[in-house]
Model the fold of this input.
Amino acid sequence: MKKGVKNSLIIVLFLSMTFVYGQKVTGDYEKSTDFSAYKTYMFVGWQDDSDQVMNDFDKKRLRESIQSEMAARQFEYVESGGDMAVSLFVVVDEKTSTTAYTNYYGGAGYGRGRRGYGGWGNGSATTSYSENDYLVGTLVLDMLDEESKDLIWQGVATGTITTNPQKREKKIPKAITKLMKKFPVDKVK
Done:
């Protein structure tokens, strides 16, 4: 197999693994919480200036996606005085993936000689090595009881950040939908 084809196969394998394992979501909540008691929610901002790592378009996409998911669960958004307070925290880490592949080329030769002595032969090996830098973003979505300030639900989504704005426009709502599946209140049909 030629070197270019092998490198292409390695890249396809890496990209398919990124697609399958690209996003991880978890959610946890206070089991004694009666979520039916909550009717409204409000955004209380971004924790620790984490909104500085995002552009205004992506911040808007995140908020609109959360609002859409909350509306589907019949929670009403209010500017202030909501039953629940929604807080967002974003962390971006730079990661490097490393890929190496060694191809062994066998040589010609023979095995044991007539008298049992070793034979001769030749062979070679080449190794392809590459590094790929990428960004991994983690979104922590906290929902707090506004009156007691207690954390009642936390969702965490982690995934590879694409640099393509059109892909982010599609990926952000999908990520929030996947994250909100962990929320203990189902969508109303």
